[in-house]
Design goal:
With 462 residues, the chain is of the alpha/beta class. It is 21% helix and 27% strand. The protein contains eleven helices and 27 strands. The strands form six sheets. The chain has an eight-stranded mixed β-sheet with strand order 2-1-12-11-13-14-15-16, sandwiched between helices. A seven-stranded mixed β-sheet has the order 7-6-4-5-9-10-20, with helices on both faces. It is globular and about 70 Å long.
Length: 462
Protein backbone atom coordinates (compact mmCIF):
# COMPACT_ATOMS: atom_id res chain seq x y z
CA UNK A 1 0.00 0.00 0.00
CA UNK A 2 1.50 3.35 -1.06
CA UNK A 3 1.10 6.72 0.57
CA UNK A 4 0.28 10.01 -1.08
CA UNK A 5 3.43 12.01 -1.77
CA UNK A 6 2.34 14.86 0.49
CA UNK A 7 5.53 16.87 -0.07
CA UNK A 8 5.17 17.01 -3.86
CA UNK A 9 5.13 20.70 -4.89
CA UNK A 10 2.38 20.41 -7.51
CA UNK A 11 -0.85 18.51 -8.05
CA UNK A 12 0.67 16.50 -10.88
CA UNK A 13 3.47 15.44 -8.57
CA UNK A 14 0.89 14.13 -6.14
CA UNK A 15 -0.65 11.72 -8.65
CA UNK A 16 2.62 10.45 -10.13
CA UNK A 17 3.53 6.85 -9.38
CA UNK A 18 0.55 6.24 -7.10
CA UNK A 19 -1.65 3.18 -7.04
CA UNK A 20 -4.28 1.94 -7.40
CA UNK A 21 -5.93 3.60 -10.36
CA UNK A 22 -8.45 6.35 -9.65
CA UNK A 23 -10.97 7.82 -12.00
CA UNK A 24 -12.85 11.05 -12.61
CA UNK A 25 -16.39 10.67 -13.98
CA UNK A 26 -18.80 13.13 -15.45
CA UNK A 27 -22.10 12.41 -17.15
CA UNK A 28 -20.48 11.45 -20.46
CA UNK A 29 -16.98 10.16 -19.79
CA UNK A 30 -14.57 8.45 -17.41
CA UNK A 31 -10.85 9.28 -17.26
CA UNK A 32 -8.07 7.46 -15.41
CA UNK A 33 -6.31 10.35 -13.69
CA UNK A 34 -3.13 8.33 -13.08
CA UNK A 35 -2.40 8.60 -16.80
CA UNK A 36 -1.58 12.30 -16.36
CA UNK A 37 1.71 11.20 -14.75
CA UNK A 38 2.98 10.49 -18.27
CA UNK A 39 0.31 12.08 -20.44
CA UNK A 40 -1.62 15.23 -21.24
CA UNK A 41 -5.06 16.49 -22.15
CA UNK A 42 -3.68 19.77 -23.49
CA UNK A 43 -2.58 18.55 -26.91
CA UNK A 44 1.13 18.68 -26.14
CA UNK A 45 1.06 22.45 -25.56
CA UNK A 46 1.65 22.58 -21.82
CA UNK A 47 5.14 24.08 -22.21
CA UNK A 48 3.66 27.10 -24.01
CA UNK A 49 1.74 27.97 -20.83
CA UNK A 50 4.84 28.16 -18.61
CA UNK A 51 4.87 31.29 -16.48
CA UNK A 52 1.67 32.69 -17.98
CA UNK A 53 -1.48 34.03 -16.37
CA UNK A 54 -3.98 31.45 -17.59
CA UNK A 55 -7.76 31.67 -17.54
CA UNK A 56 -9.44 28.27 -17.33
CA UNK A 57 -12.66 28.76 -19.31
CA UNK A 58 -13.62 25.15 -19.99
CA UNK A 59 -17.31 24.28 -20.18
CA UNK A 60 -16.92 20.84 -18.59
CA UNK A 61 -15.89 20.13 -15.03
CA UNK A 62 -13.97 17.09 -16.25
CA UNK A 63 -11.75 19.13 -18.56
CA UNK A 64 -11.43 21.75 -15.81
CA UNK A 65 -10.13 19.09 -13.43
CA UNK A 66 -7.59 17.75 -15.93
CA UNK A 67 -6.38 21.24 -16.84
CA UNK A 68 -5.92 22.27 -13.20
CA UNK A 69 -3.78 19.22 -12.48
CA UNK A 70 -1.53 19.94 -15.45
CA UNK A 71 -1.30 23.70 -15.00
CA UNK A 72 -0.47 23.82 -11.29
CA UNK A 73 3.27 24.34 -11.02
CA UNK A 74 3.48 25.47 -14.66
CA UNK A 75 1.30 28.59 -14.93
CA UNK A 76 2.17 31.70 -12.94
CA UNK A 77 -1.52 32.30 -12.24
CA UNK A 78 -4.67 30.22 -12.69
CA UNK A 79 -8.00 32.06 -12.82
CA UNK A 80 -10.89 29.61 -12.68
CA UNK A 81 -14.09 30.81 -14.33
CA UNK A 82 -17.36 29.37 -13.02
CA UNK A 83 -20.05 28.87 -15.66
CA UNK A 84 -21.97 31.99 -16.70
CA UNK A 85 -19.39 34.36 -15.19
CA UNK A 86 -20.64 37.94 -15.38
CA UNK A 87 -18.40 40.90 -16.32
CA UNK A 88 -16.00 38.58 -18.13
CA UNK A 89 -14.01 41.41 -19.74
CA UNK A 90 -13.34 43.02 -16.37
CA UNK A 91 -12.44 39.70 -14.73
CA UNK A 92 -9.90 38.81 -17.42
CA UNK A 93 -8.39 42.29 -17.36
CA UNK A 94 -8.03 42.15 -13.57
CA UNK A 95 -6.34 38.74 -13.83
CA UNK A 96 -3.88 40.17 -16.39
CA UNK A 97 -4.49 37.03 -18.41
CA UNK A 98 -2.38 36.30 -21.46
CA UNK A 99 -3.57 32.74 -22.14
CA UNK A 100 -6.79 30.78 -22.00
CA UNK A 101 -7.60 27.08 -21.78
CA UNK A 102 -10.92 26.13 -23.36
CA UNK A 103 -12.66 22.95 -24.45
CA UNK A 104 -14.99 22.01 -27.27
CA UNK A 105 -18.01 23.42 -25.47
CA UNK A 106 -16.60 26.81 -24.44
CA UNK A 107 -18.85 29.65 -25.55
CA UNK A 108 -17.20 32.18 -27.86
CA UNK A 109 -16.61 35.51 -26.17
CA UNK A 110 -14.46 38.42 -27.26
CA UNK A 111 -12.78 38.60 -23.86
CA UNK A 112 -11.35 35.12 -24.49
CA UNK A 113 -9.44 36.31 -27.55
CA UNK A 114 -6.11 36.15 -25.74
CA UNK A 115 -2.58 35.80 -27.18
CA UNK A 116 -2.46 32.06 -26.44
CA UNK A 117 -5.40 29.70 -26.73
CA UNK A 118 -5.08 26.01 -25.77
CA UNK A 119 -7.76 23.35 -26.05
CA UNK A 120 -8.21 20.75 -23.30
CA UNK A 121 -9.81 17.41 -24.21
CA UNK A 122 -11.50 14.89 -21.88
CA UNK A 123 -8.94 12.27 -22.85
CA UNK A 124 -5.29 11.76 -21.92
CA UNK A 125 -2.64 10.92 -24.52
CA UNK A 126 1.04 10.08 -23.91
CA UNK A 127 3.33 13.12 -23.80
CA UNK A 128 6.82 14.14 -22.74
CA UNK A 129 6.78 15.55 -19.22
CA UNK A 130 8.14 18.93 -18.13
CA UNK A 131 10.73 19.13 -15.38
CA UNK A 132 10.02 22.76 -14.48
CA UNK A 133 8.20 24.10 -11.44
CA UNK A 134 6.64 27.57 -11.10
CA UNK A 135 4.75 28.57 -7.93
CA UNK A 136 1.16 29.06 -9.05
CA UNK A 137 -1.39 31.57 -7.79
CA UNK A 138 -4.93 30.18 -7.73
CA UNK A 139 -7.55 32.87 -8.35
CA UNK A 140 -11.15 32.12 -7.38
CA UNK A 141 -14.18 34.29 -8.05
CA UNK A 142 -16.30 35.15 -5.04
CA UNK A 143 -20.06 34.71 -5.06
CA UNK A 144 -22.82 36.79 -3.54
CA UNK A 145 -21.57 40.17 -4.75
CA UNK A 146 -23.23 42.55 -7.17
CA UNK A 147 -21.19 43.99 -10.00
CA UNK A 148 -17.78 42.63 -10.89
CA UNK A 149 -16.97 39.61 -8.69
CA UNK A 150 -13.96 39.85 -6.41
CA UNK A 151 -10.94 37.74 -7.34
CA UNK A 152 -9.43 36.06 -4.28
CA UNK A 153 -5.84 34.84 -4.58
CA UNK A 154 -4.89 31.53 -2.93
CA UNK A 155 -1.80 29.37 -3.04
CA UNK A 156 -2.00 25.62 -3.34
CA UNK A 157 -0.73 25.48 0.25
CA UNK A 158 -3.66 27.57 1.57
CA UNK A 159 -6.15 25.51 -0.42
CA UNK A 160 -4.94 22.13 0.80
CA UNK A 161 -4.07 23.17 4.37
CA UNK A 162 -7.41 21.85 5.77
CA UNK A 163 -6.98 18.48 4.08
CA UNK A 164 -3.88 17.16 5.81
CA UNK A 165 -1.18 14.91 4.42
CA UNK A 166 -0.26 11.25 4.30
CA UNK A 167 -3.78 9.91 3.79
CA UNK A 168 -3.89 6.27 2.79
CA UNK A 169 -4.24 5.27 -0.81
CA UNK A 170 -6.38 2.15 -0.55
CA UNK A 171 -8.56 2.76 -3.59
CA UNK A 172 -11.72 2.43 -1.52
CA UNK A 173 -12.74 6.09 -1.45
CA UNK A 174 -14.95 7.60 -4.15
CA UNK A 175 -15.77 11.24 -3.56
CA UNK A 176 -18.86 12.85 -5.06
CA UNK A 177 -20.10 16.40 -4.91
CA UNK A 178 -23.21 18.36 -5.81
CA UNK A 179 -20.98 21.43 -6.11
CA UNK A 180 -19.29 22.73 -9.23
CA UNK A 181 -15.51 22.36 -8.77
CA UNK A 182 -14.99 25.79 -10.32
CA UNK A 183 -16.23 27.31 -7.06
CA UNK A 184 -14.49 27.07 -3.70
CA UNK A 185 -16.73 24.39 -2.16
CA UNK A 186 -16.39 22.06 -5.13
CA UNK A 187 -12.69 22.79 -5.55
CA UNK A 188 -12.12 21.58 -2.00
CA UNK A 189 -13.62 18.19 -2.87
CA UNK A 190 -11.56 17.98 -6.06
CA UNK A 191 -8.41 18.63 -4.00
CA UNK A 192 -9.44 16.10 -1.35
CA UNK A 193 -9.71 13.48 -4.07
CA UNK A 194 -6.25 14.37 -5.41
CA UNK A 195 -4.53 14.55 -2.02
CA UNK A 196 -6.29 11.45 -0.70
CA UNK A 197 -5.78 9.31 -3.79
CA UNK A 198 -9.53 8.95 -4.35
CA UNK A 199 -11.76 8.81 -7.38
CA UNK A 200 -14.26 11.62 -7.99
CA UNK A 201 -17.77 11.81 -9.47
CA UNK A 202 -18.43 15.27 -10.88
CA UNK A 203 -21.78 17.02 -11.12
CA UNK A 204 -23.14 18.25 -14.45
CA UNK A 205 -25.18 21.39 -15.04
CA UNK A 206 -28.78 20.64 -15.93
CA UNK A 207 -28.61 17.02 -14.84
CA UNK A 208 -31.82 16.05 -12.97
CA UNK A 209 -31.15 15.25 -9.34
CA UNK A 210 -32.56 11.74 -9.78
CA UNK A 211 -30.11 11.04 -12.61
CA UNK A 212 -27.21 12.42 -10.60
CA UNK A 213 -28.06 10.27 -7.58
CA UNK A 214 -28.37 7.18 -9.77
CA UNK A 215 -24.97 7.93 -11.32
CA UNK A 216 -23.41 8.42 -7.89
CA UNK A 217 -24.78 5.03 -6.92
CA UNK A 218 -23.41 3.30 -10.02
CA UNK A 219 -19.96 4.76 -9.37
CA UNK A 220 -20.00 3.52 -5.78
CA UNK A 221 -19.70 6.91 -4.08
CA UNK A 222 -18.47 6.64 -0.48
CA UNK A 223 -18.03 10.32 0.44
CA UNK A 224 -20.50 12.98 -0.69
CA UNK A 225 -20.56 16.74 -0.25
CA UNK A 226 -23.02 19.56 -0.87
CA UNK A 227 -24.84 22.50 0.64
CA UNK A 228 -27.82 21.92 2.95
CA UNK A 229 -30.03 23.01 0.03
CA UNK A 230 -28.37 20.41 -2.22
CA UNK A 231 -29.07 17.78 0.40
CA UNK A 232 -32.68 18.83 0.97
CA UNK A 233 -33.36 18.52 -2.75
CA UNK A 234 -31.63 15.13 -2.83
CA UNK A 235 -33.71 13.87 0.08
CA UNK A 236 -36.87 14.70 -1.87
CA UNK A 237 -35.88 12.26 -4.64
CA UNK A 238 -36.80 8.56 -4.50
CA UNK A 239 -33.35 7.90 -5.99
CA UNK A 240 -31.74 8.82 -2.66
CA UNK A 241 -31.93 5.09 -1.91
CA UNK A 242 -29.41 4.43 -4.70
CA UNK A 243 -26.52 5.75 -2.58
CA UNK A 244 -25.10 4.59 0.75
CA UNK A 245 -22.21 6.95 1.58
CA UNK A 246 -19.89 6.31 4.50
CA UNK A 247 -19.39 10.04 4.97
CA UNK A 248 -21.73 12.98 4.35
CA UNK A 249 -20.46 16.56 4.32
CA UNK A 250 -22.35 19.86 4.36
CA UNK A 251 -21.00 23.38 3.85
CA UNK A 252 -21.86 26.69 2.22
CA UNK A 253 -25.05 27.40 4.20
CA UNK A 254 -26.25 27.11 7.78
CA UNK A 255 -26.70 23.44 8.65
CA UNK A 256 -29.71 23.50 10.96
CA UNK A 257 -30.66 20.63 13.24
CA UNK A 258 -33.46 19.50 10.94
CA UNK A 259 -31.18 18.70 7.98
CA UNK A 260 -28.59 17.05 10.23
CA UNK A 261 -31.27 14.84 11.79
CA UNK A 262 -32.76 13.99 8.37
CA UNK A 263 -29.38 12.91 7.01
CA UNK A 264 -28.69 10.81 10.08
CA UNK A 265 -32.05 9.10 9.71
CA UNK A 266 -31.41 8.43 6.00
CA UNK A 267 -27.79 7.31 6.42
CA UNK A 268 -27.60 5.97 9.99
CA UNK A 269 -24.18 4.33 9.46
CA UNK A 270 -22.54 7.40 7.88
CA UNK A 271 -20.36 9.97 9.54
CA UNK A 272 -21.93 13.40 9.09
CA UNK A 273 -19.93 16.60 9.25
CA UNK A 274 -20.69 20.23 8.51
CA UNK A 275 -17.83 22.54 7.64
CA UNK A 276 -17.57 26.30 7.81
CA UNK A 277 -15.80 27.74 4.79
CA UNK A 278 -15.78 30.65 2.38
CA UNK A 279 -13.74 31.62 -0.66
CA UNK A 280 -11.84 34.27 1.29
CA UNK A 281 -11.54 32.62 4.71
CA UNK A 282 -10.96 29.07 3.48
CA UNK A 283 -12.11 26.04 5.48
CA UNK A 284 -12.08 27.16 9.10
CA UNK A 285 -13.47 24.18 10.98
CA UNK A 286 -15.66 21.10 10.74
CA UNK A 287 -18.20 19.86 13.27
CA UNK A 288 -19.03 16.17 13.44
CA UNK A 289 -21.00 15.76 16.67
CA UNK A 290 -24.42 15.83 14.97
CA UNK A 291 -25.40 19.19 16.43
CA UNK A 292 -26.02 22.50 14.67
CA UNK A 293 -23.58 25.34 15.29
CA UNK A 294 -20.16 24.82 16.85
CA UNK A 295 -18.74 24.40 20.38
CA UNK A 296 -18.12 27.64 22.25
CA UNK A 297 -14.56 26.63 23.06
CA UNK A 298 -13.64 27.00 19.37
CA UNK A 299 -13.29 30.71 20.19
CA UNK A 300 -11.13 30.12 23.24
CA UNK A 301 -8.04 28.73 21.53
CA UNK A 302 -6.75 28.26 18.02
CA UNK A 303 -7.27 24.90 16.32
CA UNK A 304 -4.70 23.82 13.69
CA UNK A 305 -3.60 27.44 13.41
CA UNK A 306 -7.16 28.75 12.91
CA UNK A 307 -8.22 31.57 15.23
CA UNK A 308 -11.82 32.77 15.60
CA UNK A 309 -13.17 35.89 17.25
CA UNK A 310 -16.32 37.99 17.25
CA UNK A 311 -16.77 41.69 16.60
CA UNK A 312 -20.32 42.99 17.05
CA UNK A 313 -21.58 39.44 16.63
CA UNK A 314 -19.79 38.84 13.31
CA UNK A 315 -17.39 35.93 12.99
CA UNK A 316 -13.81 36.79 12.03
CA UNK A 317 -11.09 34.29 11.08
CA UNK A 318 -7.29 34.33 10.96
CA UNK A 319 -5.54 31.27 9.60
CA UNK A 320 -3.02 29.98 7.04
CA UNK A 321 -6.01 28.78 5.02
CA UNK A 322 -7.28 32.24 4.08
CA UNK A 323 -6.74 33.85 0.70
CA UNK A 324 -3.71 36.12 0.42
CA UNK A 325 -5.40 39.15 -1.13
CA UNK A 326 -7.84 40.37 -3.76
CA UNK A 327 -6.57 41.08 -7.23
CA UNK A 328 -6.96 44.67 -8.34
CA UNK A 329 -7.08 47.88 -6.35
CA UNK A 330 -10.81 48.55 -6.55
CA UNK A 331 -11.66 46.26 -3.62
CA UNK A 332 -11.18 46.76 0.10
CA UNK A 333 -8.45 44.85 1.90
CA UNK A 334 -9.24 41.18 2.37
CA UNK A 335 -7.90 41.13 5.95
CA UNK A 336 -7.92 43.75 8.69
CA UNK A 337 -4.73 45.12 10.27
CA UNK A 338 -4.64 42.12 12.66
CA UNK A 339 -4.84 39.64 9.81
CA UNK A 340 -8.48 38.62 10.37
CA UNK A 341 -11.05 38.09 7.61
CA UNK A 342 -14.49 39.52 8.44
CA UNK A 343 -16.89 36.82 7.21
CA UNK A 344 -20.10 38.82 7.58
CA UNK A 345 -21.73 35.79 9.24
CA UNK A 346 -23.52 36.57 12.49
CA UNK A 347 -23.39 34.10 15.39
CA UNK A 348 -25.12 33.93 18.76
CA UNK A 349 -24.17 31.99 21.86
CA UNK A 350 -26.71 29.53 23.22
CA UNK A 351 -25.44 27.57 26.19
CA UNK A 352 -22.23 25.75 25.29
CA UNK A 353 -22.74 26.43 21.59
CA UNK A 354 -22.52 29.19 19.03
CA UNK A 355 -25.17 29.04 16.33
CA UNK A 356 -25.27 30.90 13.03
CA UNK A 357 -28.02 33.51 12.91
CA UNK A 358 -27.59 34.65 9.30
CA UNK A 359 -25.72 37.11 7.10
CA UNK A 360 -25.13 40.68 8.22
CA UNK A 361 -26.41 41.90 4.84
CA UNK A 362 -29.49 39.65 4.82
CA UNK A 363 -31.40 41.20 7.72
CA UNK A 364 -35.11 42.01 7.30
CA UNK A 365 -36.32 45.18 9.04
CA UNK A 366 -39.81 44.87 10.55
CA UNK A 367 -40.86 48.12 12.20
CA UNK A 368 -37.28 48.83 13.27
CA UNK A 369 -36.69 45.29 14.57
CA UNK A 370 -33.96 43.24 12.89
CA UNK A 371 -34.72 39.70 11.75
CA UNK A 372 -32.45 37.03 10.32
CA UNK A 373 -34.59 34.91 7.97
CA UNK A 374 -32.42 31.83 8.61
CA UNK A 375 -33.46 31.81 12.27
CA UNK A 376 -37.12 31.51 11.29
CA UNK A 377 -36.35 28.90 8.63
CA UNK A 378 -34.59 26.75 11.22
CA UNK A 379 -37.78 26.70 13.27
CA UNK A 380 -40.03 25.96 10.29
CA UNK A 381 -37.70 23.19 9.11
CA UNK A 382 -38.15 21.43 12.46
CA UNK A 383 -41.73 20.58 11.49
CA UNK A 384 -41.76 16.86 10.61
CA UNK A 385 -43.60 17.44 7.34
CA UNK A 386 -41.34 20.23 6.04
CA UNK A 387 -38.41 19.55 3.69
CA UNK A 388 -37.17 23.13 3.20
CA UNK A 389 -38.30 26.73 3.56
CA UNK A 390 -37.45 30.28 2.55
CA UNK A 391 -38.36 33.32 4.62
CA UNK A 392 -38.51 36.63 2.78
CA UNK A 393 -39.81 40.18 3.30
CA UNK A 394 -43.01 41.62 1.89
CA UNK A 395 -43.63 45.35 1.82
CA UNK A 396 -46.08 46.65 4.40
CA UNK A 397 -47.34 50.27 4.69
CA UNK A 398 -47.24 50.20 8.51
CA UNK A 399 -44.04 48.33 9.44
CA UNK A 400 -42.11 48.72 6.19
CA UNK A 401 -41.88 44.93 5.86
CA UNK A 402 -43.45 41.79 7.19
CA UNK A 403 -42.01 38.30 6.91
CA UNK A 404 -43.63 35.56 4.90
CA UNK A 405 -42.50 32.00 4.31
CA UNK A 406 -42.48 29.69 1.29
CA UNK A 407 -42.47 26.05 2.37
CA UNK A 408 -41.75 22.82 0.50
CA UNK A 409 -43.31 19.74 2.05
CA UNK A 410 -41.93 16.25 2.05
CA UNK A 411 -43.22 14.38 -0.99
CA UNK A 412 -45.59 12.08 0.89
CA UNK A 413 -47.14 15.07 2.70
CA UNK A 414 -47.56 17.04 -0.52
CA UNK A 415 -49.55 14.16 -2.01
CA UNK A 416 -51.76 13.67 1.01
CA UNK A 417 -53.20 17.20 1.12
CA UNK A 418 -54.19 18.80 4.41
CA UNK A 419 -52.12 21.88 3.68
CA UNK A 420 -54.24 24.22 5.82
CA UNK A 421 -53.61 22.12 8.91
CA UNK A 422 -49.90 21.97 8.17
CA UNK A 423 -49.76 25.77 7.80
CA UNK A 424 -51.53 26.18 11.14
CA UNK A 425 -49.15 23.72 12.79
CA UNK A 426 -46.14 25.59 11.42
CA UNK A 427 -47.48 28.90 12.69
CA UNK A 428 -48.08 27.34 16.12
CA UNK A 429 -44.51 26.08 16.16
CA UNK A 430 -43.22 29.55 15.25
CA UNK A 431 -45.34 31.27 17.91
CA UNK A 432 -43.98 28.90 20.52
CA UNK A 433 -40.32 29.35 19.57
CA UNK A 434 -40.07 32.94 18.29
CA UNK A 435 -40.88 36.49 19.38
CA UNK A 436 -44.08 37.86 17.88
CA UNK A 437 -42.37 40.06 15.27
CA UNK A 438 -40.52 37.05 13.84
CA UNK A 439 -43.61 34.90 13.30
CA UNK A 440 -44.48 34.78 9.57
CA UNK A 441 -47.55 36.75 8.61
CA UNK A 442 -48.34 34.20 5.89
CA UNK A 443 -47.16 30.79 4.76
CA UNK A 444 -47.32 29.48 1.21
CA UNK A 445 -46.89 25.83 0.27
CA UNK A 446 -44.79 25.70 -2.90
CA UNK A 447 -43.58 22.76 -5.03
CA UNK A 448 -39.92 23.86 -5.06
CA UNK A 449 -37.53 26.64 -4.14
CA UNK A 450 -34.91 28.13 -6.41
CA UNK A 451 -31.33 27.13 -5.69
CA UNK A 452 -28.56 29.30 -7.14
CA UNK A 453 -25.58 28.00 -9.11
CA UNK A 454 -23.59 28.12 -5.85
CA UNK A 455 -25.92 25.52 -4.34
CA UNK A 456 -27.43 28.01 -1.91
CA UNK A 457 -31.05 29.07 -1.61
CA UNK A 458 -31.67 31.95 -4.03
CA UNK A 459 -32.38 34.94 -1.78
CA UNK A 460 -33.53 38.04 -3.62
CA UNK A 461 -33.37 40.44 -0.72
CA UNK A 462 -30.40 41.86 1.17
Amino acid sequence: MKMVRSNAPSLKGRIADTAPERFFWDRAARVCVNQLACGTGLGGRLAELKGRSVVVATSSQLTTALALIELDGVARRLTILPPDTDHLDAVIACAEADAVVIDAGTTDHGALDLPLRVVCAPAIVPAEQLSLYVPTEWVLLTSGTSGVPKLAVHSLASLIAPIGAGQRLDGAVVWGTFYDIRRYGGLQIFLRAIIGGASLVLSCAGEPIADHLARLGRCGVTHLSGTPSHWRRALMSPEIGKISPRYVRLSGEIADQAILDSLHATFPEAGIGHAYASTEAGVSFEVSDGRAGFPADFLEHDRDGVELNLVDGALRIRSPRTAQRYLGTQHARLRDHDGFVDTGDMVERRGDRYVFAGRRGGIINVGGLKIHPEEIEAVINRHPQVRMSLVRPKQNPVTGSIVIADVVLKSECARSGGELQIKNDILALCREALPRHKVPAAISIVPALDVAATGKLARRHG
